[in-house]
């Protein structure tokens, strides 16, 4: 029997939606979550793909996410929109606040979205890319639970604190990146654990603050930041901006949902949006075209252009469907057809 | 004879101002430059300290900076202020635009400063820290000439592209960082060259794209980004935001001033400012206090808190003056007393 299963994007979306509603997510949340995890799977970002649906259902069972919270959007100032996710998933809250965010950016040139009190498990790039699709430049960040030691430290304090950026391109898909300020995303260690592999050197410390190659020890210890003290400084910035600045928690004050229903997984996300057309007026098109010289320069020397591999995977997935491990597929089908958690 | 000279901050300021005006900078520019280089020297950021005065005069002689350009401030939108430095030094342009930037941030919650067409040699932290002193959160970035290879590349394309951030603290000096997205600031390689030292592994490639420990080869080759492809992605972001987004140049389109007066050193800088009080209203003080838990967490495990060493140096310098190498002091005095360049 094949070790993998190939599905069309439509079939994967249906599976995801049915699985989520079966376990109690309302349609709006199920749709928003499905859009994000299927987009990640489509772009071959496995660590934020459909395997996260298992976590979503588990988190719901553990009281870590509201399945039907209605996001509450608040117009704070000419440049700021806030949305309270009400302990629901961040994805629907983002979608509900997105129109106001775009309007503010277009009118004032720059705008912020402060997203509060959300369960957050998803990649940030689909959000910033959707803003670049609207012709805007976007920067997003969120803290996560305290899994990461600051540079020179031994214990978890910081979240994996991802940052994502997207830039609209005149004739193609946006230039986008999205990375954890930990050496790798926590999902990568999780995937190594599930595969029974060791992790590379330099990723993590064990609970005693010693270097480790064991994914279990790493998950119980502390991950390291990328780029030493510079990555650590960025991680602190992200924690401040997507935490206290928007009236939300620090990573070490949150915790994953757990069996005892005592987790506190809810936290914030910040998105900054700039409208190049408001800033540059009639000159915007010329300067956006000008930016292409930088991308050309990167490609000319055979260097990596972020998001290019992802966009290639997207084209492939649209033509050929997506391929996932059979074990994962069977787990998702069981979850769709099984008893409500 | 002592190898060093110790001067009061006032004496160093006077030396700097006299040196700059002697060579043709007008008083406004001389004052703005002096404030920046003396602040760096005071905080023991040697790579942006008073040795940069030699470069300033040299750049003036080579036609790379206007000594008396009047910055032109333009109100673009409720969220955006632009300032054209007119090929003068960025520092005076920032100072002239700062009041409008602060007003916009306070009124709308978030504001941008697009600073164009400037000669830029200075550290960014004095600027973001001055905004934090006004109770605001600030993020600044600027490209520089193409000295750095993108991850996976071999040739210079990106600037050293520094990013700086500052956060107001209730009872102390702001939390601030400022780092190049190259492994080190170019000034560090320059200091190694002046000292006759080799540079550490992993800093740079030579002109053939091979790893090198020779500071001269490094200055003629390509520096590397910090943190591999993540640092490279950030560097690209900085180049886009402080370049085409604000209608200015990419690093590889600029070049240092040179003997033939054919350099094109002028480029942009972007500053994003957020007002926590506009965002959080009456809750702002409580959340700013809450952020202190993160700083305490860093210090508790003996990890590095960015800007702490700099602020310690500041206290020391205010009490005891600053100590610089005698050779540098003599060079500055010669420059102050010598013929106009």
UniProtKB/TrEMBL annotation, chains A, B:
Family as reported in the entry's similarity comment: Belongs to the LDH2/MDH2 oxidoreductase family.
Domain of life, source organism: Bacteria
Gene3D superfamilies: 1.10.1530.10, Hypothetical oxidoreductase yiak, domain 2
Name of the protein: Delta(1)-pyrroline-2-carboxylate/Delta(1)-piperideine-2-carboxylate reductase
UniProt organism field: Halomonas halophila
Alphabetized Pfam families for the sequence: Ldh_2
Record key words, sorted: Oxidoreductase
Keyword field contains Oxidoreductase: yes
